[in-house]
Amino acid sequence: MKKEQPISLKQLLSLTFMQIKKLRPAVILFFLFYFFLVLPLGGFSLHSELLAKIKLPAFIIDFIFINRLFVIILYLMIYLLLSYIALRLTFTLPAMILLNASLRQAIRHSLLLTRKNFWKIISQLVFITIGITFLTSVSFSLVLGIQRLIELFFPSKALPFAVVSLLALQLIYVINLVLSTIIIFYLIIEWLDRENYLFPLPSMNALFKNPDTKRRMRLKWPYVTPFILMSMIILLHYNYTYLTNVSSQPIVTISHRGVSQANGVQNSIEALRATSQYYQPDFIEMDIQMTKDQQFVVFHDFNLRSLTGLNQIVEESTLSEILPLTVRENDQQAAIPTFDAYLEQAKMNQQKLLIEIKTQRKDEAVIVQQFLQQYKTRILEEGHLIQALSLGLVETFKNEAPELTIGYIIPFHFVGLPVSQADFFMMEYSTLNRSFIDAAHNEGKFVFTWTPNQTETMERMMFYGVEGIVTDRMDLLTAQKRLPETMSYADKLAYFLIGIG
Question: What is the pLDDT of residues 385-415, one digit of tens each?
Fold first, then answer.
C-alpha cells in the first residue's frame, strides 16, 4: 500500500513467509514477550476456550474470590499499566523488522515516537475500535436478520442455512481480528514513515520478476487446498453439532433464598412454606451460619444490620441474641429461624434444600465438625445438597464426608476450573459460558447458575448446558423447565455470539 503498487493476495502471503524466514532470534523473543504482554488486552476474554481449560490451585481461587474488590481494583490497575506499556512499545517490533534495528535502538525509537504523539495515537486507536465494532455489529445483525427471515418463510431450510450462518459469524469474527491487525499495522507504518524512520522500500515489480524469488514464492496449492477443505468440513460439522446437540433433560429448579416474586422474607420459614407449596421447586436455596455458641441459624448476610437494624456480626452473636430479632423485607416480617426449625418445615413439605454454609472464620474445620456431627445423617437421608463460597470449606467437607454432595460457588468466570473435589459448581450467570460448562462436564461435575430472572436468560443457560437454575422467578422457571422445541436457530446463533464475549 505504501508503494501504491498492485499485489495479489498470493504474492502478499508468499512475501510474508519469505520475510518470516529472515527473522532474527531477538525479533522472535520480543514478539513472544509482546504477545504475552497484550494477551490480557486482546481477544482472550473471560469467555476464551483457552482460559476455560486452565486450572488454578485452591489457595489462589480462594484469595481471588474472598478479596474480590481488591482483586478487581488491582486487575484494573494492571490492565491500565499493561495498556500503557504496550502502547509505548508499539513501534519496537516494526522497527526491528523494517529498520533492522537492535532491540535497544527499536525501544528508543518507539518511546520517542509515542511520547511525541501519545494522544494522537490513542485517538486513532479509539476511532478504529469504534469503527470496527460498528461494522462487526452490523454484520452480525445482518446474518441474524437473514436467518430469522429464512426461518419465517422457508422453515424447512432453517437448519442448513443456520449451519452456514454460524460459519459466516465465525468468519466475521476472524475477519474482525485480521482487519484490526492490518489497520493497526498500516497506521504503525504510516507513523514510522511520517517520522522518516523507514528506509526506501524495494520495488514490488523488481522483486517479483526475480526468478529465484518467484520460485521461492510459489505456493503449493495442491497441498494447501485439501487442508482448507478439511478445515471447512470440520467446522461445518462442529456447527451442526452445536445447533442440534441440545439437552432435552428438564432443568433442576431452585428457589433463591426460598422466595419467588417477593412472596415472603428471604430465608424465613413462612417463605419456605409458601414457595414450596405453590411452586414445588426441586430445591430451595438457603443460607446458614454458625453462631458464637456453635448453633446454626438461617441468615444470608454476615452482618444483621441490613435486615434487622442491629449492627452485629452473626458469627459473633449467640443464639439467644439472634432469635428475638425480626427480619423485615418485601413489606413483610419474620423471625430468624434456627436451621433445625427450617429442616423440620422442609421435611413437612417434602422439600429438598440447597444449603449454603457461609463463614468468615479462619478455623473452618470447627464448622465442618459441628455441622457433620449434628446434621450429616439427616442431610443424606433427606437428599439435601451443600455448597460454599470457600474452597477450603468444600475440600474439608469432601475429606470428612465424601458421600455428601458438595458444590463450590464461583462468583464469576475468572479462568478455568478450580482444582477441587467439589461435585458441582455454582456460578453467577453473567460470565458463565458453554466453554466452562463443557470443561466441568468433562471432569464429571455438573453446573448450577444463579440468578437469571428473565425467560431469555434462562433459555440461554439451558442451551449452554447447565443442570440447574437458581432464580427469584419460580413462575418463569417452572413454565420453562426444559428448552422449548421451537427455539429458533437465530436465538442459538445469538447465544453463540454472547458466549464468545
Answer: 999 998 889 999 999 999 999 999 988 876 6
Tens of pLDDT, residue by residue over 138-189, are: 999 999 999 999 999 999 999 999 999 999 999 998 888 888 888 888 888 7
Could you tell me the pTM of the whole model? 0.76
Q: How far apart are CA 470 and CA 160, in angstroms?
A: 35
Provide the 3-class DSSP secondary structure of residue 445: coil
Residue 312: all three cell numbers together? 452485629
Cell readout for 182 is: 492490518
Instruction: Give the residue with greater pLDDT, 460 vs 201.
Output: 460
Phi-psi region of 302 (alpha: psi -120 to 50; beta: other; left: phi over 0): alpha
Is the distance from CB of 91 to CB of 192 less than 8 angstroms? yes
Looking up cell 507513523 gives 191
For 378-385, the CB contacts below 8 A with 24+ separation are 378/343, 379/355, 379/404, 380/404, 382/343, 382/346, 382/347, 382/352, 382/353, 383/352, 384/346, 384/352, 384/353, 384/354, 384/355, 385/283, 385/352, 385/353, 385/354, 385/355, 385/424
Closest CA to 396 of 416, 368, 374: 368
Give the H/E segment covering residue 468: strand 468-471
C-alpha–C-alpha distance, residues 107 and 26, integer Å: 13
Query: Does residue 136 contact residue 476 with C-beta atoms inside 8 Å?
Result: no
Yes or no: say if 197 and 95 are a contact pair by the CB < 8 Å rule.
Answer: yes
Q: What is the dihedral of CA 389, 393, 398, 403, to 10 degrees?
A: -70
